[in-house]
């Protein structure tokens, strides 16, 4: 009995509010906003009372109040109300004319005063989503309309949390219905995901620590060098440009004829090379590829700065260059693989740690017996790998 009395009172209040609302002048902006706010309160009251006829009346009222400057109902709350009333025909007709431009135009309008209408509608439809999906399946709609209405409800209720899966489903709809009247909306909400091609660019840089083998071990100190590589990746193949720059000091006097490059002097040592490798392991967390190639090594006294004394002329005799073969095993530990969207790169791009264990078969020994030997090294680099988009 109390419930019936409450309903009668609320309906009576609604009738009075309707009469008062319809009598409000709308010439001034503040009065129009007041009328929109009042109509939204009545719509919320009808919604909470499960009064679909009353809700329809107030939705029509808000539609008449809306113009190019004022918004009565935001598009998403209005569409959720269409689902609540199962007004699929009205919903589909409106959505077929709605695209990104329409959304932007609505965003520029003066919005209604803040209230709880959307929150109540959103909470209710989320709680009743399974009933809503069942209603769509039973509705008098063709297959295309049912498929689109289901996708739209998932979008409005924010059930499309997996962007890759969501984009694939939208693309499937577009492929199946290439002439659909809903493609404008479909394309406006499709995530802009870059698809990875079978090609990528990368670079890494870090510290290289070496170990000499042969007579050169007694001539040069331990090399601590900056190591850089740039590479192009395609279908598991890696094509690399590699360089290392450092300057180990002399561990003993180095002679060329009667001239001497004295012990403890600094050196300028660098190598550049080209290589090719192939991924033997490529998982979401790890990539390993061996590589082989060749390079050029140069060892000479460092060039003095402008404010330093010039080197003796005979130091030109200690300018050594050579060509060598090289090999390495490279391992990428993939980090930040989920951050590719922030970098505007396709999925699969990553930052990470590159570990390199390699060999340079140096051939300085042809120029000086004290430089006979090769170099074994280990490098720890920070690596950037970026897929190219299709």
Query: Low-confidence runs (pLDDT<50, min 5 residues)?
Result: 1-10, 12-26
The CATH architecture of the largest domain can be named as Beta Barrel
Q: What is the CATH topology of the largest domain? A: Porin
Order of helices and strands: HHHHHHHHHHHEHEEEEEEEEEE
**Basic shape:** elongated
Number of strands: 11
The total of helices stands at 12
Question: Describe it for me?
Answer:
With 390 residues, this protein is α+β, with helices and mostly antiparallel strands. The chain has 2 domains: 2-189, no CATH class; 196-389, Porin (Beta Barrel). 37% of the residues lie in helices and 30% in strands. The protein has helices at residues 2-23, 29-48, 52-65, 75-85, 88-96, 100-108, 117-127, 129-138, 143-156, 163-176, 183-189, 216-219, and strands spanning 196-213, 224-234, 237-246, 254-256, 259-261, 268-278, 281-282, 286-300, 320-335, 350-360, 374-389. The strands form 2 sheets. The protein has an 8-stranded antiparallel beta barrel. β7 and β8 (286-300) form a beta hairpin. It is elongated. The chain starts with a helix and ends with a strand. 26% of the residues are buried. The model is unreliable at 1-10 and 12-26 (pLDDT under 50).
Characterize this entry briefly.
The protein is of the alpha+beta class and 390 residues long. It has helices at 2-23, 29-48, 52-65, 75-85, 88-96, 100-108, 117-127, 129-138, 143-156, 163-176, 183-189, 216-219, and strands at 196-213, 224-234, 237-246, 254-256, 259-261, 268-278, 281-282, 286-300, 320-335, 350-360, 374-389.
């Amino acid at each position: 009995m109390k419930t019936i009395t409450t309903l009668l009172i609320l309906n009576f209040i609604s009738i009075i509010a309707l009469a008062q609302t319809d009598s409000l002048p709308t010439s001034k902006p503040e009065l129009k906003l007041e009328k929109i706010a009042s109509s939204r309160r009545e719509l919320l009251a009808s919604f909470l009372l499960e009064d679909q006829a009353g809700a329809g009346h107030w939705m029509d009222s808000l539609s008449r109040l809306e113009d190019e400057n004022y918004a009565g109902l935001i598009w998403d709350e209005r569409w959720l109300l269409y689902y609540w009333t199962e007004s699929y025909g009205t919903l589909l007709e409106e959505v077929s004319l709605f695209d990104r431009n329409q959304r932007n135009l609505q965003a520029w309008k003066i919005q209604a005063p803040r209230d709880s209408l959307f929150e109540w509608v959103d909470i209710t439809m989320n709680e009743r989503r399974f009933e809503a999906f069942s209603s769509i399946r039973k509705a008098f709609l063709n297959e295309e309309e049912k498929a689109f209405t289901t996708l739209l409800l998932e979008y409005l209720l924010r059930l499309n949390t997996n962007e890759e899966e969501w984009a694939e489903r939208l693309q499937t709809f577009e492929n199946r219905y290439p002439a659909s009247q809903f493609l404008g909306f479909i394309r406006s909400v499709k995530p802009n995901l870059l698809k990875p091609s079978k090609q990528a660019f990368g670079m890494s840089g870090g510290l290289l620590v070496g170990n000499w083998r042969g007579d050169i071990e007694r001539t040069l100190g331990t090399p601590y060098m900056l190591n850089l590589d740039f590479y192009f990746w395609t279908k598991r193949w890696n094509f690399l440009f590699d360089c290392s720059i450092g300057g180990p000091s002399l561990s003993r006097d180095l002679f060329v004829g009667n001239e001497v490059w004295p012990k403890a002097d600094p050196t300028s040592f660098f190598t550049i090379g080209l290589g090719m490798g192939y991924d033997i392991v490529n998982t979401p967390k790890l990539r390993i590829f061996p590589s082989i190639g060749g390079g050029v090594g140069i060892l000479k006294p460092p060039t003095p700065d402008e404010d330093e004394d010039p080197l003796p002329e005979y130091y030109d005799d200690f300018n050594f260059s050579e060509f060598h073969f090289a090999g390495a095993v490279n391992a990428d530990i993939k980090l930040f693989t989920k951050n590719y969207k922030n970098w505007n790169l396709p999925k699969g791009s990553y930052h990470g740690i590159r570990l390199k264990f390699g060999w340079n078969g140096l051939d300085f020994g042809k120029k000086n017996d004290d430089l006979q030997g090769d170099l074994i090294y280990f490098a720890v680099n920070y690596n950037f790998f970026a897929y190219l988009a299709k």
